[in-house]
Write the structure tokens for this entry.
Amino acid sequence: MADSNDYIEYIAGLAKLSLDDAEMQSLAEDMQDIIGLMDTIKDIDTDSIDATEHISRITNNMREDTPGNPFNTEKILSNSRHAMDNCFAIPKMIE
């Protein structure tokens, strides 16, 4: 459990949390429970299970990509205070 307390103390320091001994002990026990669950999951035999990207086997329903009429660049840029080379011009943010 000493290793768990070191990890909890390190993570609490990163998060700028101050924990008392009871909280440290509680979190260390929770961490041991989580690691135990991960070990249980790791031991499950998944050789006969097909790999899937989504549990509900959704397939993509894609429409045809049909080009439409292009927008009028001058009309779009008329709403901008500044334009440059048929693009919106914005103030420089980073030096």
The mean pLDDT is 85. The longest helix spans residues 21-42. Strands lie at 83-84, 87-88.
